[in-house]
Amino acid sequence: MSSLLDHVAHGGRLPTEPFLEIVPPPSARDFAVLSFPAHVVIAAPVTLDWVTAHLPDSGDEFSEPMNPPFLHALERHLGRRVNNIDQMLVAPALPGPPPLALTEITDHTHPRVRHAVGYRDHVRVYAATGGLLTVGRGLAGRWELSMEVLPEHRNAGLGRALVTAARHLIPAGAHVWAQISPGNAASTRTLLAAGFTPVGAEAILQTPLVDAPGAP
């Protein structure tokens, strides 16, 4: 899985035949359905026979594994839930320090931080005036970010500065991924402006979220 994601991050295309690929989940936490152009990857303990039997007959085989009825069947089969179907965007690391004043913090009680540590390992949290950025290792060990801008600081470029900063906070040669709800047009525009490229969509099948150390 990590090599597949790395291939995509570097601009590589995946084979269209077979369009459906089933791989072992990269960890006990990380079950997922990933959709790329004409190629779908299911990272879960399921068989091709089970998947084929539960795919809806929509007439569009490329979209069927991301179809809500199939995802619901997968939820019931695995005893997990899909939080959302998100678009995936990715960008390479940038050299040097972030062009934004950041303060690393250890307070993991913020709701966005609590959310991040449920999905990611080695989460680091950075505060800027009016915003918050988290960077950690998520699906198959990839670097992932999340950010939040306070309402009174929006529409001033802070979101773009925060996600650009994430590109400076990962190791040289690495890539950082962002997952955005398709309806969140503002965040999509922010990531595009910061040099991120849309590469596909994903549905993560969650286990119960893990509380951050020390959180109530």
Automatic annotation (TrEMBL):
Residue ranges annotated for the GCN5-related N-acetyltransferase Rv2170-like domain, each copy included: 146-197
Superkingdom, natural source: Bacteria
InterPro entries, per database record: Acyl_CoA_acyltransferase (IPR016181), GCN5-like_dom (IPR013653)
One Gene Ontology molecular-function label: acyltransferase activity, transferring groups other than amino-acyl groups
Stretch forming the signal peptide: none
Pfam entry (one): FR47
Protein's UniProt name: GNAT superfamily N-acetyltransferase
